[in-house]
Write a structure and sequence with these properties.
The chain has 736 residues and is an alpha+beta fold. 42% of the residues lie in helices and 22% in strands. The protein has 5 domains: 188 residues; 95 residues, Immunoglobulins (Immunoglobulin-like); 94 residues, Immunoglobulin-like (Sandwich), CATH 2.60.40.10; 96 residues, Immunoglobulins (Immunoglobulin-like); 117 residues, Nucleotidyltransferases  domain 2 (Four Helix Bundle (Hemerythrin (Met), subunit A)). The protein has a 5-stranded mixed sheet with strand order 11-18-17-14-15. Strands 5-4-7-8 form a 4-stranded antiparallel sheet, with no helix packed on it. A hairpin with a 2-residue loop joins strand 21 and strand 22. The longest helix has 37 residues. Keywords: Plasmid. It comes from Halogeometricum borinquense (strain ATCC 700274 / DSM 11551 / JCM 10706 / KCTC 4070 / PR3). This is Protein-glutamine gamma-glutamyltransferase-like C-terminal domain-containing protein.
């Protein structure tokens, strides 16, 4: 079987030897790197003018030496996926061969991962994270160049969505099997209560497998319609796994639980929060035996209510609608048994129309004045018809910062918000609004004022690796108390001329390479922070550099001016990426004009990283160095997990990664089982954590569900906001 490196080389060689391929825009830069890489590794003579001082290296294998499709890999169920060798393509610019090869690899990965859910005890499928993203990106590039199958960005988005949904499906299958193993051990040990609890969890896990499997099948179809992939085998495997999972859960349900029926009637056909309805009900087994004299939980619409059955299984409830849509004409009522209960859940509906009740909201702030990075806590209460309103969303905003939380049982809310750098000095308004539209409770809003004070900043600058043509610079922007300031623009000036504008990262740092070709003897390099508005004061720092005299050394010019040498080194750096640029800087392999060009690309990536990290660092307080250090460590961990997804536009994956990072910390802090579903974990958080942590984790959980299961992707701004929300959870874990 051809190795991945060989096949990747096939791909680059195919581009290199396709003279009729026309590359434009971003694809052109990719192709230059690929062509140059082939020139470097192909069996051609050394680069003109280069002398290494040692024996010439052995030539790389020729195109004809690349493995052929006779070594095609097979999936675990012995079905062979055919791959065409790109080198065997006939005709100039034959992109269809490359597309066929990539289609085979991507199909193989997806089908193999799906097959693992059928035969493996626990599915890993590492290629989804390793090779798949690169193959998907290359496929989108081929689409762009061929112009045959629509927009390349949309194609790449479909690949990313498929990967996300494949991960969700795999996670659901793994959860089901892990729960099943625990259930079997509990039964073997005679632990009836634990077995029932795990059986209930198993039924929920089976529903998740069914849901995510269906979504993945639909996504397979979407991808098949848009691309040349054949995923029918994968869809059939999903069908088998879902069927087996459902059958197993039904068998365990029948073994562990007594099935119930629920009867409900309402005393009126129209209700509102101010004029509630009374619901009369009866809970019995399927054999009509009353579930008597029990405290039970009944979910009515969006509200979980607690009541007591009598000797005949009858009960009554008062229902005040809050989140029910004004378009509703029926409401769902569900019996929710305790996890260890003998009885199974049951549900029904009852006819009910809704009238809207006007709400009001109050809001106050913890501090009259605040400055950059300080936390202002906003508290308030939502009421309607003279009563507190529980479990309704309230969105609090301060400048560009905002957060949505849910009111507590007594209608109160509490939202901590950091003061952003962009908020102007002076009196500023914070807004609190009931975030509802066309619901039983109306929207409402109120405001409170905060005095914003200015904050002095400190900017430091240093330079290293100074040559007669370039220098590496680094700097840091902090407040006067030492707090790093992220996502701020720093101008770099050489001899009074601005040569670069850099953006600070999560640690307030900037770094880059600057050219010194025009310098003579010594030169002053200045870093300047001069914000346009906001509440941070400007600051500068400068260093005096002594530039070595003499001709520019380290590279020479004869080989650089040779066309082959130019293409080879630029192409190799394009393949190596940032690490290659750094190496070139350190070894002085390139003239500074080219280093500037390449490092500008790296600076743009640094700018993306800074924007992503902005929400993380704005919440760091200045009261304790230890707290700041811990927050910075968490910032780095979150950024390392989430930045790659956001940088390539995979917002759903970024949100899921954010949630999973915080979920791990939350389960460790609470000491609960890691196998809990996301909603079950949320119930534990609400029961054991502070109100603030509960509200924030509720927001994260809702966002995770949207990212994992909703058809529309999460917006990038929302994903960035959730990073900050995640930081809030970590900052408040000491409240458990």
């Amino acid at each position: 079987m051809a190795s991945e490196r060989e096949c990747a080389r096939c791909f680059t060689i195919r581009f290199a030897y396709s003279p009729t391929v026309t590359l434009k825009g971003g694809a052109a830069s990719v192709a230059i790197g690929l062509i140059a890489f082939c020139l470097v590794v192909a069996p051609v003579g050394g680069v003109a003018g280069v002398s290494t001082g040692g024996p010439a290296p052995a030539p790389a294998p020729s195109v004809s030496q690349v493995a052929t499709p006779t070594d095609a890999p097979t999936t675990s169920n012995n079905s062979t996926i055919q791959h065409a060798n790109p080198d065997s393509a006939s005709g100039s610019g034959d992109l269809s061969t490359i597309r066929e090869w990539l289609s085979g690899r991507i199909s193989e990965t997806l089908i193999d991962c799906t097959e693992q859910t059928r035969v493996a005890e626990r599915v890993a499928c590492s290629r989804l994270d390793e090779s798949y993203p690169d193959w998907a990106s290359k496929y989108a590039t081929v689409v762009q160049e061929s112009g045959e199958r629509g927009d390349s960005e949309e194609t790449l988005a479909e690949f990313n969505k498929t990967r996300t949904q494949q991960r969700s499906y795999i996670e659901a299958v793994n959860d089901f099997r892990e729960t099943k193993s625990k259930y079997e051990r509990a039964r073997e040990s005679g632990n009836t209560s634990k077995a029932r609890s795990l059986a209930r969890e198993l039924v929920a896990d089976a529903v998740a497998v069914n849901r995510t499997g269906g979504q993945l099948q639909g996504q397979y179809q979407q991808l098949t319609d848009r691309t040349s992939l054949d995923l029918d085998e994968g869809s059939q495997t999903i069908e088998v796994v879902v069927e087996n999972t459902t059958e197993t859960s039904e068998q365990i349900r029948e073994l562990e639980f007594v099935e119930t029926t629920l009867q409900i009637s309402a005393n009126r056909t129209t209700a509102s929060f101010g004029s509630p309805t009374r619901l009369d009900g009866r809970l019995a087994t399927n054999e009509s035996k009353a579930v008597a004299n029990r405290a039970i939980n009944v979910l009515v619409g969006e509200q979980l209510l607690r009541t007591q059955t009598d000797a005949e299984g009858r009960f009554d409830l008062v229902y005040r609608p809050t989140l029910l849509s004004l378009d509703s004409d029926r409401v769902r009522v569900m019996y929710r048994p305790a996890r260890t209960s003998l009885y199974g859940r049951s549900e029904t509906t009852v006819g009910l129309s809704v009238r809207q009740t006007n709400a009001s909201v109050t809001v106050s702030r913890s501090d009259e004045t605040a400055r950059y990075g300080e936390i202002v806590r906003f508290t308030g209460r939502v009421s309607a018809a003279g009563r507190d309103v529980a479990n309704v969303p309230v969105r609090v905003s301060l400048g560009e910062r905002s957060r949505t939380v849910t009111t507590t049982a007594n209608g109160t809310f509490s939202v901590p918000l950091p003061v952003p750098a962009s908020l102007a000095v002076g009196t500023q308004t914070a807004n609190a609004a009931v975030a509802l539209t066309d619901r039983a409770i109306s929207s409402a809003q109120n405001r409170t004022a905060v005095q914003i004070r200015s904050t002095e900043t400190n900017l430091s600058l240093s330079a290293t690796n100074v040559t007669n043509s370039a220098a590496q610079i680094s700097g840091q922007l902090t407040t006067d108390s030492g707090q790093p300031v992220s996502s701020q623009q720093i101008q770099i000036r050489v001899g009074g001329t601005t040569v670069k504008t850099l953006s600070t990262d999560a640690r307030g740092m900037v770094q880059s390479t600057i050219g010194l070709e025009e310098a003579n003897g010594s030169v002053t390099v200045t870093a300047a922070y001069d914000p346009n508005g906001g509440n941070l004061e400007p600051s500068t720092d400068a260093v005096e550099l002594t530039v070595p005299s003499g001709e520019h050394t380290g590279t020479g010019t004869s080989w650089w001016n040779a066309p082959t040498g130019f293409i080879a080194i630029v192409g190799l750096l394009a393949v190596l990426g940032t690490s290659g640029i750094v190496a070139a800087e350190a070894l002085e392999l390139l003239p500074t004009r080219i280093l500037d060009l390449l490092s500008r690309k790296r600076d743009q990536k640094q700018s993306v990283s800074s924007e992503i990290a902005a929400a993380e660092t704005e919440e760091i307080t200045t009261t304790a160095t230890a707290d700041a250090t811990e927050s910075a460590a968490v910032d780095a961990e979150l950024a390392a997990v989430v930045e790659p997804q956001l940088a390539r536009g995979a917002t759903d994956e970024a949100v899921i990664a954010t949630y999973e990072t915080i979920r791990t910390k939350m389960t460790d802090s609470l000491g609960v089982e890691k196998s809990l579903t996301h909603w079950e974990l949320l119930e534990h958080v609400r029961a054991e954590a502070s109100e603030d942590v509960s509200a924030i984790f509720t927001e994260l959980t809702s966002a995770y569900e949207q990212a994992a299961y909703a058809p529309e992707p999460v917006q990038r701004d929302r994903a960035l906001e959730l990073l900050e929300v995640a930081q809030q959870v970590v900052d408040q874990t000491d409240q458990f």
